[in-house]
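About this split. The held-out portion is used to measure sequence recovery: a designer receives only the structure tokens and must propose an amino acid at every position. Recovery is the fraction of positions where the proposal matches the reference. Here is one held-out target exactly as it appears in the evaluation file.
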């Protein structure tokens, strides 16, 4: 981004101090592009017995049929050992599994090697998660969904449920208020970050109210497109993608005709598809190709992952059209991001002199968020930490991941 040039820009890791390592699912089958497949996979698992159940489950060092774990915060999964579990599947939840790829997950701690319960505790309608990508064009993703993608660190915007306590360096909002003459909100700061962040995850800040307002407006547009949780985005009339030839029962090939701006799914056709949408990559992977492969790629026969739709659901077509639109609109914003020139910079040195940086170590750790117990293994109460002190009677292994990041 040549327009953003100041060399003493603060690090994202200092501006949003609390971060968590990505989730490690450990097995692919508890995630799927449609919730019905997940319910069918769970039913197949609990109907199997002995070695058959173990083979379907795909145990790892972190999770076996006999692992004792607590229930995920807000999750609907059980806590009895999977070796004797039965009953219905926990209600699948929407998650971000890859850049711009929203799928479904069974929210059951017994199925996930490293679930990061501290993220589940703060996941609600007010939350926004950012995820590092390592990609110079899209260094950060933002999502309202819990991210399960294999990226860099995950940073929630809020440290507590209900949009409480922003995950910002203490004193940052006060310092920006003094420089800008008006008080920004935590979402304003996140919007600026999405507009101004550099490939190296530094974030030039400005004390110029006009530049700040322009960057925040641009970042809000980026955030809206990435979250996709409000009014549906649309391309201008005549540029909106439509299905021109019906998609087959289950398309197996995907190709793009640049001259005709047409996406071919076997004999099915979608157009117009702007080249910018087709070519949109994150970390060297073409987003549309990755999205399609996640729904049509081969699965080993006899595994739970092989349980999936026999025909292409209509919902996937709608999601594909929206994804094309989002990628095209995000590509259109890249020149504006590149042209964002920071004047009156608020430097890392300024923030250190003001005592905002470095942030205190407490800001890098999860906040105490619970006023109730969580269910631990076999229905016991889980041990919960409140400001560094244990509350609850349970073994410490069941929830120790909550204090790690």
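Reference sequence for scoring:
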């Amino acid at each position: 981004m040549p327009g953003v040039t100041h060399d003493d820009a603060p690090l994202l890791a200092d501006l949003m101090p609390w971060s968590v390592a990505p989730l490690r699912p450990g097995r692919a089958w508890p995630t799927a592009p449609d919730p019905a497949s997940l319910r069918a996979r769970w039913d197949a698992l609990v109907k199997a017995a002995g070695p058959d159940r173990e083979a379907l489950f795909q145990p790892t060092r972190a999770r076996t049929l006999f692992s004792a774990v607590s229930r995920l915060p807000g999750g609907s999964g059980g806590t009895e050992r999977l070796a004797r579990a039965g009953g219905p599947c926990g209600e699948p939840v929407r998650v971000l599994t890859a850049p711009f790829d929203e799928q479904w997950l069974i929210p059951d701690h017994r199925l996930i090697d490293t679930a990061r319960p501290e993220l589940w505790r703060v996941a609600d309608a007010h939350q926004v998660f950012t995820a590092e990508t390592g990609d110079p064009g899209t260094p950060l993703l933002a999502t309202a969904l819990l991210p399960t993608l294999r990226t860099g660190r995950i940073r929630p915007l809020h440290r507590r449920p209900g949009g409480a306590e922003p995950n910002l360096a203490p004193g940052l909002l006060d310092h920006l208020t003094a420089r800008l003459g008006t008080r920004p909100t935590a979402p304003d700061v996140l919007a600026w970050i999405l507009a101004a962040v550099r490939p190296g995850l530094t974030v030039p800040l400005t004390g110029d109210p006009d530049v700040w307002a322009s960057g925040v407006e641009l970042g809000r547009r980026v955030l809206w497109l990435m979250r996709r949780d409000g009014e549906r985005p649309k391309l201008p009339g005549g540029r909106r993608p439509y299905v021109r030839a019906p998609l087959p029962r289950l398309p197996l090939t995907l190709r793009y005709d640049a001259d005709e701006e047409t996406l071919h799914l076997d004999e099915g056709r979608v157009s117009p598809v702007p080249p910018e949408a087709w070519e949109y990559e994150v970390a060297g992977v073409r987003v549309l190709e990755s999205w399609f492969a996640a729904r049509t790629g081969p699965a080993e026969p006899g595994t739970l992952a092989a349980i999936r739709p026999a025909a292409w659901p209509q919902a996937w077509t709608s999601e594909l059209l929206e994804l094309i639109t989002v990628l095209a609109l995000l590509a259109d914003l890249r020149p504006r991001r590149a042209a964002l020139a920071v004047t009156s910079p608020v430097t890392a040195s300024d923030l250190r002199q003001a005592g905002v940086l470095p942030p205190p170590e407490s800001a890098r750790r999860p906040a105490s968020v619970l006023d109730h117990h969580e269910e631990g293994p076999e229905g016991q109460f889980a041990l919960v930490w409140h400001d560094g002190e244990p509350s609850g009677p349970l073994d410490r292994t069941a929830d120790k991941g909550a204090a790690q990041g």
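Annotator remark: The first strand starts at residue 31 and ends at 32.
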